[in-house]
Every structure is written in C-alpha cells, then in structure tokens.
Please model this.
Amino acid sequence: MDAIEALMSRVSVPPKLLVEPAPEGESLDEIMATAMRAPDHGALQPWRFHIVRGDARAKLGELFVEALKKRDPNADEAAIAKERARPLRSPLVIVAAVKVSYEKDNVPKVEQIVSTAAAVQNMMNAAHARGFGSFWATGKNARDAHVKAAFVLSEDDEIIGFVYFGTPRRGAGTKPRADSSAFVAEWA
Ligand SMILES: Cc1cc2nc3c(=O)[nH]c(=O)nc-3n(C[C@H](O)[C@H](O)[C@H](O)COP(=O)(O)O)c2cc1C
Model:
C-alpha cells in the first residue's frame, strides 16, 4: 500500500473488533521502528512503549482493578469487571508513555508529549498499511498514579495511550472525513 493511500484509508477499529493475529515478530519490530521516525526535538527520545499481550493482558486488567479501587473504594462489581476485562478485548495492547525530561529548556513537556503522539500515529499507520487495525484509548487509567508507577513512571510522566492492536474482524471499514478546507486558511 502506497503511503498516501495508507494515511487516507486508516480508521480506528474498536478494541473488541480486533482479533488474532496481532502484529508480532518482524511485523511488530517494523511497527516499533516507525515510532522511532517521529520528529523528536532535542533528540530526547521521550517515548517508552510497553508491549502487553498474552497473560500479561490479564495482569494489566488486575492493575486497572486495583487503580479503580484506590480511586473509588465503593466501586461496584460491574465497574470492577469492566476494568478487569478492558485489556482482554484485543490480542495486543501497547502502552505509550512519555518519560518527561527537563534536561533542555527549549524542549518543554508538551513537545515531548506531541513527539510521542507522533510516534503512536506512525505505529497506527504502519499497522494499517500491513493489514492490521488499531485503536488509541486513554481514560482514567492513563492519568492514574498507581498505573503510572507500574510502568516505572512518576506522577509527572504521562501515559498518552493504551493502543490496541489486532486484525479487524470484518475489515477495517471506512469513515467519511471532514473536508480540510474548513480547517485551513491562508494567513497573510
Ligand atoms: C489521545 C487520544 C485518546 C483517546 N482516548 C479515547 C478513549 O479513551 N476512548 C475512546 O473511545 N476513544 C478515544 N480516542 C478516540 C479514538 O482513538 C478514535 O480516534 C476515535 O474513535 C475516532 O476514530 P478515527 O480515528 O477513525 O477517526 C482517543 C484519541 C486520542 C488521540
């Protein structure tokens, strides 16, 4: 698939519609290599990616349950079950994090976040170009100190995504997109 064709046809695939096979081996290596092609001001390499698959997904679900119970000791069984099952919806979850550096005054935190976001988008487009699907999610777990600690992050570091990968159950589908002209203007 040509690069523009890939960019123009990517759509998010809901996690529960992502099934085996997920990218693995060389396919996954290739996807991760595209992350390293993101623009990176100051070459800080602020991104950290954690591959969660197989039984580790259940462990991530338990971590989400722990975090929920800390946030809400009265959480009901339905809410607990939802957190437990969350990472099990897809065969592969990649946790995308930003290890924030204050080493360079000219590269503020926001730039490190957007750089990591660009890396995630590269990964999603690369996955799509190879016939896989993906979905970028965050939610309360992404901002939770207990979850961050499990990924060796401080409270100031950021989890910017739990990115779900797999093969779209029924093809990736299509989605109408806005005309760019509504968001683009000549500035003079
Ligand atoms: C940083 C970020 C976080 C997101 N978090 C969630 C989320 O937690 N739950 C959700 O349903 N969609 C979330 N989304 C939106 C979906 O990933 C997706 O972009 C949206 O459903 C639109 O689909 P599309 O990418 O095909 O346009 C998030 C998107 C971004 C960029």
